[in-house]
Design goal:
Blueprint (H helix, E strand, L loop, with lengths): L1 E6 L7 H13 L3 E6 L5 H14 L2 H26 L3 H28 L4 H25 L4 E4 L19 H12 L7 E5 L2 E3 L5 E3 L5 H11 L4 E6 L20 E3 H9 L10 H7 L3 E5 L8 E4 L11 E14 L1 H5 L3 H11 L6 E6 L2 E7 L3 H11 L7 E14 L9 H11 L6 E4 L5 E7 L3 H13 L1
Helix pairs in contact: 1-3, 1-5, 2-4, 2-5, 3-4, 3-5, 4-5, 7-9
This protein binds adenosine-5'-diphosphate (ADP), aspartic acid (ASP) and magnesium ion (MG).
């Protein structure tokens, strides 16, 4: 039996928590692979410093970078002192950590002095959070008598394309490499693999996108043909909505791959939407569990859930998105304009979350706010003003998605949902329903999120 156990940022936020995780790993039977995220807040802080040094005057770059690296080294040291109880191992892990932080320092200085932060440099800088953490996690396991070795994603064999910031794995090569590297050691050693990062074929470090450690776990599950992938996090499992919005959100004990994917895709960040596919391909069950309440049964994600308690199972919210409205008479005269527009955006690796086409001269769609300027630039480059007259943007909106396999074939459900939204006195800006009838999505102003989610939860789930 092979189990992949992934621990997220809050599960490994400090030395005590890492030690707690080491005990959970030790208690798990069979062969196991551990995947870890960076300690909570570290990836955010790496992105922040990388972006800020670009704009700093050269005279202060070194001071700011040194300050950042010193603080990171202090946190790392403190974590090692608690998590690595074997005193003789501490020195080596500390010096390996300081070596890494020195490399990070050089990269940040380069970015600051050259005033240039490419997606490739940003991936390199972001990788340090996970690279530092595998050293501590593996040290903690060794300290409690579980033989362990740290691996970065690429050391362990994860090979990706060179799409920095949103890299895609090259499955065949990765599978071969992962099995060459990990299969021989699994019998005696627990590999601790850095989530979120891989490397392209030239060896440059790539990242899989924010929250991508979940994806790493299911990719390794797929390559190693694991029996189970476990996502250990800071809530009891997948809940009927984000407990930060509705504290009484309910635990979903079982959910299908398709429903879980929809929920994650539309904002339920408890799992990364891309993580479902590798598990689904191999039919590997995924369990979402609470690191702080390991006896709680969590959520089981499988191909077909056994029973449906509610027609609507959960509500997800995708924030930080914008609507792009495209208008132009030329659009009507251009055959397959929608196809051309979407493939242009696809080429630029821009994800379209929702589409609403009212006529051929007017097309609206939703993208992440972070993709907005790239989308604008790409559309301007590809389409002349004769075809695409104007692009307007609606900001401060969010997508609300309700998910449930029970909606399939249930008459009047959309009407009931929209009546509930109207009763909450909220205006709907855009609507879409997935053809699988597993979900209904609609866009509202972000200020209305709390009211809408509470009303829907109250009516359909409570
Ligand atoms: P990790 O660091 O373990 O990867 P994340 O912060 O990425 O954890 O995801 C866990 C968080 O996801 C929870 O703390 C919760 O606020 C949020 N969340 C959003 N939607 C849901 C949902 N439907 N069920 C459970 N948690 C959710
Ligand atoms: N550390 C990365 C992030 O914060 C990956 C992850 O946590 O899954 O996005
Ligand atoms: Mg996460």
């Amino acid at each position: 039996m092979v189990v992949v156990m992934k621990f997220g940022g809050s599960s490994v936020a400090d030395g005590e928590r890492i030690l707690n995780v080491a005990k959970l790993v030790s208690a798990q039977k069979g062969k196991k692979v551990v995947v870890v995220s960076a300690m909570s807040g570290v990836t955010d802080s790496l992105i922040k410093i990388a972006k800020s040094v670009v704009d700093l005057p050269n005279s202060v770059v070194e001071r700011e970078v040194d300050l950042f690296c010193r603080e990171l080294a202090m946190r790392q040291r403190k974590t090692i002192m608690t998590a690595v109880t074997n005193k003789s191992a501490r020195g080596k892990i500390l010096s390996q950590s300081l070596e890494l932080i020195d490399k990070l320092r050089v990269a940040l200085l380069g970015v600051g002095y050259l005033e240039d932060l490419s997606p490739k440099s940003l991936d390199y800088i972001q990788s340090f959070g996970e690279r530092l953490n595998i050293l501590v996690m593996s040290g903690a396991l060794n300290s409690i008598g579980v033989k362990s070795t740290p691996f970065t994603g690429s050391d362990a064999g994860l090979i990706t394309d060179s799409c920095f910031g949103r890299a895609r794995p090259i499955h065949q090569k990765s599978k071969k490499r992962v099995n060459e590297v990990l299969s021989p050691v699994l019998k005696d050693v627990v590999p601790v693999v850095a989530g979120f990062i891989g490397a392209d074929e030239k060896g440059s470090i790539t990242t899989l996108g924010r929250g991508g450690s979940d994806y790493t776990a299911s990719l390794f599950g797929r390559y190693l043909e694991a029996d189970e992938v476990q996502i250990w996090t800071d809530v009891d499992g997948i809940l009927s909505t984000d407990p930060r919005l509705v504290p009484e959100a309910k635990l979903i004990s079982e959910i299908s791959y398709a429903e879980a994917m929809d929920l994650a895709y539309f904002g339920a960040k408890v799992i990364h939407s891309k993580m479902i596919e590798p598990a689904m391909v191999m039919n590997i069950p995924v369990r979402v569990l609470n690191t702080f309440k390991p006896t709680c049964k969590g959520t089981l994600i499988v191909r077909k859930q056994k029973k449906v308690d509610h027609v609507i199972k959960a509500v997800a919210v995708a924030k930080d998105v914008v609507i792009m409205n495209l208008e132009g008479v030329g659009m009507m005269e251009t055959p397959n304009i929608a196809g051309q527009l979407f493939s242009a955006l696809g080429e630029a690796n821009i994800n379209i979350l929702m589409i609403s086409g009212s006529s051929e001269s007017n097309l609206s769609f939703v993208v992440s706010e972070s993709d907005l300027s790239k989308s604008m630039q790409h559309l301007e480059e590809k389409f002349s003003k004769d075809i695409l007259k104007s692009v307007s943007v609606i900001r401060d909106i969010s997508i609300i998605t309700i998910v449930g396999a029970g909606m399939h074939g249930t008459k009047g459900i959309a009407a009931k949902v929209f009546t509930t939204v109207a009763e909450a006195e909220v205006n709907i800006i855009m609507i879409a329903q997935g053809s699988s009838e597993l979900n209904i999505s609609f866009v509202v102003e972000s200020k209305d999120i709390a009211a809408v989610v509470a009303a829907i939860h109250d009516k359909f789930i409570k």
